[in-house]
Amino acid sequence: MKKILAVFAVIAMLTLLLAGCGGGEEAVQPEPQEESQHLKCVFDDSAFSFQLLRTMGEAVYDCSDIGECLTTAYQIEEGNIEDWYSEWYETAERVRGYAEESLAGGHEVSAREAYLRAMNYYRTAEFYLHGNPEDPRILETWGKSRDCFAQAAELFTPAIERVEIPYEETTLPGYLYKVDDSGEPRPTLIIQTGFDGTLEELYCNGAEAALRRGYNCLAFVGPGQGGVIREQGIPFRPDWENVVTPVVDYALTRSEIDPKRMALMGISLGGYLASRGTSGEHRLAALIANGGVYYPVAGIIDVLAASTELPEDPEEFLEYVRGNSEGFDQEMEEAMKESTALMWFMDNGMFTFDVDSPSDFILKYSEMTMEGYAERITCPTLVIDSESDDSFPGQPQELYDSLTCPKDFILFTAEEGAGEHCQMGAQLLSHQRIFDWLDKVFAQTD
Question: How do residues 333-385 score in pLDDT, each as one tens digit?
Fold first, then answer.
């Protein structure tokens, strides 16, 4: 038990699972570090610290205010998820009140900014609730986050357009961000999140950065994400090519999107999803995997095998879980009581994959792989790694090495303040390098 706790403390130092600059055929890797260089924000609990950094760092796109974040964090007891929920919810309610006051007074810029902050604070409040999928606070709090963003979207010029993307027997929710109302076809970033992000948070994860550079942006969430899992009950699926192709089909119906200059970016576990999607969709001109992920479950297996008696070989490990599911579940359930990060990882995994046990989640999760698919990607691809990111150790390099398309590699370092998972806390630097790369790729696109 102690070994498993210690291992998962390493795996989930950054509670998002599922992050110098190099290029060409040789990827640049960080020098081995003697000890963790993780940024610490208020909390000793690594899960709480990273989630605070995530929310606070989004202030650069008006989605939080540092004083509001710190004041909220100071009221939260270490590792107490009920405290986490109630304090962030209270802050979100207060800031939404500011938005409504400003809107009633005709102060649209102030209202827009406050709605954006409230959106993010509600999202943060809801983050740890997934241990009980029937908890009514999930839909209520997430719904308020969604609604606050919808209010803010109407106060932009031009307004951010809510869209519904045809997908199998239903639709996927999205937003189309336009530089202007001219209808002129523009290079477009299609952006998606990963294991736990929301459609609305994508505004500060890349959509606004795209607009500032003259790109239109189409943001969407698919199975297992946002409202698709919360309202429609559709869980994650490994074959994301069957998700991306309908999104590209929709993009090509929009006159504002240049069909020759469409890029897809996936964030966190989205680094796998976007890569797998692009393997079967060749109308995209570029792919950005932030961070790169080849076989998501391998990160867990690598760290577990290093500190326990569990098998190191992935197939042997998964066979162990299949053959000892009850024992594995019992160990995980006990360990989850002692680790906020492990609790969240397992709870969110069971929630988003729609399964009832840790073993079922791990086995479903293991179906996600780029083996046999990475070589099918043909467009220029940017693979990103972050020096202090423990979520997928070695995975960016493995994805990069498996690619046969034109490719580049960017390593973000702790020294420059960008070493955390998906460069949280350093989004301006992250977006500078990502979009500078994309500018060059699109400049060469015929």
Answer: 988 898 898 899 999 999 999 999 999 999 999 999 999 999 999 999 999 99
Three-state secondary-structure class, residue 102 = helix
- DSSP secondary structure code for residue 59 in this structure: G
Q: Identify the pLDDT of residue 341.
A: 86
Residue 299: pLDDT band with limits 50, 70, 90:
confident
For residues 310 and 185, state if they share a domain. Answer: no
> Per the residue annotation, which of 64, 102, 268, 430 is the catalytic one?
268
Q: Where are the beta strands (DSSP E) in 193-334?
A: 216-220, 257-267, 286-290
Compute the distance between CA of residue 90 and CA of residue 275 in angstroms, rounded to an integer: 38
How many structural domains is the chain composed of?
A: 3
Q: How far apart are CA 385 and CA 370, in angstroms?
A: 17
278: left (phi over 0), alpha (psi -120 to 50) or beta: alpha
Residues 195 and 289 both lie in one domain:
yes
182 is catalytic: no
Helices (H) and strands (E) in the chain, counts: 18, 9
pLDDT of res. 392: 86
Is residue 196 domain-shared with residue 269, that is, in the same domain?
yes
End-to-end CA, the chain: 57
The one-character DSSP state at 233 is -
Letter string b/e over residues 307-333, b meaning 16 or more CB atoms within 10 A of that residue's CB: eeebbeebeebbebbeeebeebbeebe
Q: At what angle do helices 340-353 and 2-11 cross, to 10 degrees?
A: 70
pLDDT band at 306 (very low <50, low <70, confident <90, very high): low
